[in-house]
Design brief:
Strand content: over 45%
Shape: elongated
Largest sheet: 7 strands, mixed
Structural class: mainly beta
Low-confidence stretches: none
Number of helices: 0
Distance between the termini: 40 Å
Radius of gyration: 14 Å
Amino acid sequence: QVQLVESGGGLVQPGGSLRLSCAASGSISSINIMGWYRQAPGKEREWVATSIRGGIINYADSVKGRFTISRDSAKNTVYLQMNSLKPEDTAVYYCHANLRASHTSSTDYWGQGTQVTVSS
């Protein structure tokens, strides 16, 4: 089965940095999109950043200039480097992938989420 395994969350002070990782495993034929979403308490899940097959990268305005998404295609892994973190960045961060598993059509997969807390 295809799974997304996340790591890198934790507690950090304002202005600090964290690097999230998400590795897709299983019988994967191709990955179209890998990206990150987040959900803060009392808010809906929001899109953060996306890496599209072919090298196209997009960011939400709230994180542009502070966060960097990258992908290691050989490892089926996507990263989110988060710098200059603010308390407003506190949320559960979810890895997302739109991919094609063996003998299937493309579909969406989600990680379990990793908690990022920015507090002094």
